[in-house]
């Protein structure tokens, strides 16, 4: 009979692998590869995610790797933007093609009118090969030929069929605005590679996110029907049972620390795979947090106490100063309050990057 793992045991196992129990001395590119990419919907999200995980992390070191094309930002898992190593972008992106096709069909097919898909694709490639451009500009140029179609739908066909890299100077630390897009062939001089075998991808997912279920990996990736890939590894994986009875898989040597291992406070960006990478998120998002995380145009930025999401935080900044406001989901002990406030100041100092003052304020506890 497989051992049953509590949500707290899963919490510590996940945080250990994600280097959120203790910051690791790992090279940035190696960390991004191990984590199978970082959520990258926002320009600064990957920087915050790595600062939470790596000792001595500095903004400029990640920016340099994006500028020299060691790391690439494009749409991959779950049809969302991720920052990958160049090697992973070339191999993982093809695996996600079915996810992108399914998403485009569901969202944009009816908004495409009578335009010929292949003709739009060819014209879009011609435009992108002339020079990098924003998605909005691409849609407008395509609409000159296909005025009955929505420009957004036309541009999104290129996002689906091509690997469009968001290139600097856009989408690096401190730079907002619409990203400039370039086909991976133009940006790096190479196209995509053959995709990895799905069992190999399962191994890598479990190394960074296990113990996990088939549904967890499907939620992380957007892929479906992954059970055969897990089944192919049955002889080398260990099995556990979740608190709700689901089957969880893991690598035999995957770290599963004592559930009472101390977990430091961490301030997470709006999107982070440490909790988005699962179908069942109770390992880090307890019911209390789930009921209080009101989503407005996406996900809120949250912080953890004892390894679990315990509140959200907001940021206001001007040219010189940063102000962080903390909204707890529950009443904190004096010791927890001190730890949260200390990490808020540390995180604010990282965000300020040596410029200006950091202030921290508290909002009222969310009513039960």
Describe the structure in brief.
This protein is α+β, with helices and mostly antiparallel strands. It has 16 helices and 13 strands. The chain is 41% helix and 16% strand.
Walk me through the structure.
The protein is an alpha+beta fold and 368 residues long. The chain has three domains: 185 residues, no CATH class; 53 residues; 78 residues, no CATH class. The chain is 41% helix and 16% strand. It contains 16 helices and 13 strands. The strands form four sheets. It has a five-stranded mixed β-sheet. A three-stranded mixed β-sheet has the order 1-7-8. Helix 6 packs antiparallel against helix 9. The chain is globular and about 65 Å long.
Mean pLDDT: 94
Distance N to C terminus? 39 Å
Spans of 5+ residues with little confidence (pLDDT < 50)? none
Number of strands: 13
Structural class: alpha+beta
What is the strand arrangement across the widest sheet? Answer: 9-10-11-12-13
> The biggest beta sheet, please?
5 strands, mixed
- The number of domains: 3
User: Which range does the strand content fall in?
Assistant: 15-25%
H/E element sequence: EHHEHHEEHHHHHEEHHHHEEEHHEEEHE
Q: Which value, in Å, is the CA radius of gyration? A: 21 Å
Helix content: 40-55%
Number of helices: 16
Overall morphology: globular
């Amino acid at each position: 009979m497989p051992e049953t793992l509590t949500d707290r045991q899963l919490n510590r196992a996940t945080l250990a692998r994600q280097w959120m129990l203790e910051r690791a001395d790992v090279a940035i590119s190696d960390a991004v590869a191990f984590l199978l990419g970082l959520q990258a919907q926002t320009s600064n999200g990957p920087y915050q995610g790595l600062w939470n995980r790596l000792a001595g992390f500095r903004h400029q070191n990640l920016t340099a790797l994006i500028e020299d094309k060691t790391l690439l930002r494009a749409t991959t898992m779950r049809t969302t933007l991720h920052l990958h190593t160049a090697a992973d972008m070339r191999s993982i992106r093809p695996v996600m093609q079915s996810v992108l096709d399914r998403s485009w069909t569901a969202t944009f097919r009816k908004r495409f009118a009578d335009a010929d898909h292949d003709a739009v694709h060819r014209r879009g490639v011609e435009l992108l090969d002339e020079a990098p451009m924003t998605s909005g500009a691409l849609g407008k140029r395509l609409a000159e030929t296909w005025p009955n179609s929505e420009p957004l739908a036309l541009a999104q066909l290129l996002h689906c069929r091509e690997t469009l890299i968001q290139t600097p100077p856009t989408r690096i630390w401190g730079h907002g605005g619409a990203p400039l897009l370039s086909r991976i062939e133009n940006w790096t001089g190479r196209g995509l590679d053959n995709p990895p075998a799905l069992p190999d991808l399962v191994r890598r997912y479990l190394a960074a996110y296990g113990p996990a279920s088939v549904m967890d990996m499907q939620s992380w990736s957007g892929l479906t029907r992954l059970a055969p890939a897990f089944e192919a590894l049955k002889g080398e994986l260990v099995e556990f049972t979740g608190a709700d009875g689901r089957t969880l898989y893991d690598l035999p040597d995957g770290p599963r620390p004592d559930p009472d291992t101390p977990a430091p406070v961490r301030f997470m960006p709006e999107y982070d795979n440490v909790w988005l990478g699962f179908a069942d998120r109770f390992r880090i998002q307890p019911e209390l947090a789930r009921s209080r995380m009101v989503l407005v145009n996406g996900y809120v930025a949250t912080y953890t106490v004892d390894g679990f999401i315990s509140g959200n935080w907001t940021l206001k900044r001007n040219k010189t100063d940063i102000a962080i406001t903390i909204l707890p989901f529950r009443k904190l002990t004096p010791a927890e309050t001190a730890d949260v406030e200390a990490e808020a100041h540390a995180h604010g100092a990282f965000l300020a990057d040596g410029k200006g003052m950091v202030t921290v304020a508290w909002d009222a506890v969310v009513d039960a």
